[in-house]
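Letters spell out the chain; the tokens describe the backbone. To illustrate:

===
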Amino acid sequence: MGFNKTLSRFLTIAGFYTALTACSSNQPTVEPDLPEKEYFRLAQEALDNSLPTTAAEQLKELETRYPFGEYTVPARLDLIYAQFEAGNYAAAHATADRFIKNYPDQSNIDYAYYMRGLSTYRGAETFLGRYLDLNAAERDTAEFDKAFAEFADFLRRFPDSQFAPDAKARMIYLRNLIAEHEVSIAHYYFKRKAPLSALRRGQEVIQNYPSTPAVEEALAITIQAYMDLKLYDEAKLNLSVLADSFPNSKFLNKNKKFIPFELPREADPDLLYWVSLGLIN
């Protein structure tokens, strides 16, 4: 009786296993529909016809069906470009990152580093364009900072790359943009009657972005902030720096006196001139 029960149980399990095997064998398998070269050709054709989304789809198919094929490496490089041209900057960045990790010694690796920075840059630019109505303090330049760092990393590794001049130009633009952003935030703090915070933003530009056009206004911001804080010696010192560095500054009158952004409410001009040691005209 025990043997019969054991045999019955065995047959039941065997039947169940056979059914599972049959189901598994019925699952569809990924079979190459086209030769690897044809996927690559179709992708190139799509790129030539300004169809980057179609090209990306073909390149992904090639990568899936021929993960170790002859065209895998160039296809992955082209996928970065196709995703970028399609406006999918996050995907292009991720693909570039993956290429860098998988092929660190590949001859065209400089392109992947460059496109990684460019994808971050363009993505941040697109984001900022959508939210131009935000006030300066609500904008976030973190992605611009990231793009700057990625371009700097690229130039450190590949100073002689054909993409180096463009990366340098974009870094200059990014430095100017970030400095202008700090200046905008400083003015926001002035409106909020927070001169100390405005002062810190002005100092940030002077110390960290000394070669940018925003330095002139940053110096004016520090002068205004020091006066608001009644730190007139510091204001006078920065005024001399402004006059020496920017003798034709729009923040100075013909007598080299500081032109304030706005006078305090109900201020006595004569008294204000005296307590500010003649800094304010």
Q: What stands out?
A: The longest helix spans residues 164-191. Residues 194-281 form one domain.
